[in-house]
Amino acid sequence: MAKKADFNYIITLVAVLVAVLIAYAIYKHIEFRQPATINTIHVINLDRDSKRLEAINQQAKALNLTITRFPAIYGKDIPYNQMRNHGVGNAMVRADRHDHRGEKLNNLGIVGCYLSHRELIRKLGNMDVPDSYGHLIIEDDLRLPSDFLQPGGRWEKLSHSIPADWDIIWLGIWKPYGVDVAPGIMKLKSDPRIRVNLGTFSYVVKHGSIKNKILPWLEYMNDAYDEQLNLKFNEWNCYATVPRIIDIDEDLSADSAINKINVAPEEKKV
Q: Would residue 53 count as lying in a domain?
């Protein structure tokens, strides 16, 4: 009698375990098929680039979108002796290693861009929202497509094909490099031998990936913002829509305060 009871207990236990495994498999299958979402949109914009902000706001109004402005950091406004406080090493900005007072500085636009994106991501990470939330970060020189976030648009169709493990999704990237995982979706890969996967003018960050993955990697600036993120593509789950959903507006891009401070003095005189 005791042996039969033990046998029945084992059968019951196995049945429960099988049921749990089946339920878990169904859950993961459903989770995998959950479309990626864009729940907030923020645009990075310098105070002096009011024309570009106006252009973005006009596009947003036409598409019935809510876009929140985040004030960009102007690299020239950061004194040389405070760069380290922002996690920016001397080698990033000092043109001459003997220039101890910081009178000849490089890459101030690149520094401002990096810090602007990092500070916005810090702000997003402090929002009390579900981990699954997607935060779209855009720069202010974009051309939004007429179907952007509209029913039946490309994002709605492609979002169903993006694996649920995503950390960052690029809606616009130059020289995409990686592995196609679905029609129109590429999983990005790093390769230090080649310069690929460039630009951070339009990308979605998953809320749940911000504090444990993204922010720790951005604490110290080692390279331009897109290049620094690129180094993590083989560890994180980063995807891109290929071809791009969002592209640069060349006219707006040419009129950029950030780009202008990256131009050498001799080029400005031409």
A: yes
